[in-house]
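ok posting inputs for the thiamine diphosphate job
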Amino acid sequence: MAEKLTQEQVSQLEKYAQSIRYSIVQMVTEAQSGHPGGSLSAADILTTLYFAEMNVNPNDPQAASRDRFVLSKGHAAPVLYATLAEKGFFPKEELLTLRRIDSRLQGHPSMKNLPGIDMSTGSLGQGLSAAAGLALAARLDNSASRVYTVLGDGELEEGMVWEAAMFATHYKLDNLTAFVDFNGLQIDGPISEVLSPLPIPEKWAAFNWHVIQIDGHDIQAIYDAIQTAKTIKGKPTMIVAQTIKGKGVCEMENIADWHGKAPSRQQCDLFLSQLNELEAQ
Amino acid sequence: MGLATREAYGEILKELGGKYENIVVLDADLSKSTKTAVFAKAFPQRFFNVGIAEQNLMGVGAGLAAGGKIPFVSTFAMFAAGRAFEQIRNSICYPKLNVKIAATHAGLTVGEDGASHQAIEDISLMRSIPNMTVIVPADAEETRKAITFAAEYDGPVYIRLGRMAVPDLFAADYTFEHGKAVQLADGKDVTIIATGIMVGAANEAAKQLQDAGISARVLNIHTIKPIDKEAIIKAAADTGAIVTCEEHSIIGGLGSAVAEVLVENSPVPMERIGVCDTFGESGIPSALLKKYHLTAEDIAAAAKKVISRKK
Ligand SMILES: Cc1ncc(C[n+]2csc(CCOP(=O)(O)OP(=O)(O)O)c2C)c(N)n1
Ligand SMILES: [Mg+2]
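and the output
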């Protein structure tokens, strides 16, 4: 198993995550449309993947040997765009074109529009299947490329997720690592009240996945889980990441209403100053 | 500006819920957006959230109908007609079960969510299924009447609703006649046939044409299936040219339905306003309507073109 991250590496990654959160709030405000809650909850996962693990090169975004990422919960596009911009795939200024006509930053990720997007998503429940297909393609090519995907916990209510779950274990796709962004909320309320997909880890275990449960805002824990997943042979790994929807912006944290609502400009200033304070700590 | 058709849906559904005890409502984690939350608040015992599971939504709806209930099932048009097409076909329409599919956020005017959420194929998909009735209301009042019709009619109905507020076209005394076109203006040079949010634009185009000395008939076809053949054949005979307008692909929707009637009965020159075999994109609704040529100006231009094609 790979080394632990150093304390310096962790704090550098935390800085990236804060900067990504800052961009998310800015871009959703500028667009006056979009999904801040589920973008903020996944920021630490994407940061760790893109800055500590994945083999991707902003200067060669289509490299065949690259690792792939599928944002199955495509409505969280702002976190993906902010991460790609932070990584250097395109200038950060372009983030402010989110959801505008003629923008490459579509409301939901579109691989034909923007380099760095490995799969078009937005209709929930479809990303894990595509990730499984990418993992299978890598295996057919004898490529060392690994495939990562992030699903929402509400998204687990889609039947197709479980069709893909069976497929991935049946074909022993051990180059596939998935995350559930377990923030406990969907649009109409808490997942346990709307249509419970609980218990989540047990379900994936029953589908014969290797399951790891972590705090989805602990960079070291995210990193360790990814390293463990790489050692698991003969089956895919599901990392169930306990998260807080709206993480980093007090007013948004654990509030279902912030799923798909943009802050006003006034609120935005407040939220950005909160994020700045967090970073200073 | 009046209400969005989805808003009118929420209101009337609650009213009908008080009138008909057999009405039950299902939603797939979008009740705030589809406005079934209004019904849910008034009748919590008769509202069921299926979660993010549109195929199950249709299947459970079929079962409830087979069990004697009148289920109204709602989600976005993309996930109703698109995701659950085959469940609608085989579990609802084949057995001709009494399920009402009220699909919201149809068309390009979903806006910023972009192409993945912009259903521009749903009319085409739904009207191709035997036993299905397809209704596209143009404003709030027509929605109230269409939903009331659907509740009282026995059989599957697909009702296409929009996200954005639209101008009111009809007063409270408006009567909705299933399968009957509504003539909004008479004219002799061309007939503009529109459905849904394009009806307002068609009215506006007729006014622009009048200023240019062209007299246009305007027909609102709210029921795409069964379609009002008589009104279409009469329009062809009286005006000799047709323009269809829909916030939908030009493939398979209103334009195709009208063309089918024309070629078999009284072929006349025809132009179609609609999305021309392309996906939409993110943007504010008004900008999208402009970019994809769905404005009154586009309709007026098509009218002039089709008139020039008359023999
Ligand atoms: C097939 C499909 N149905 C419905 C939607 C609308 N929708 C967008 S986000 C969302 C809730 C997602 O909840 P969850 O998966 O928990 O995401 P998160 O909390 O991480 O934002 C819904 C129902 C969709 N995008 N796709
Ligand atoms: Mg969630």
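notes: Residues 182-308 of chain B form a domain with the Rossmann fold fold (CATH 3.40.50.920). The mean pLDDT of chain B is 98.
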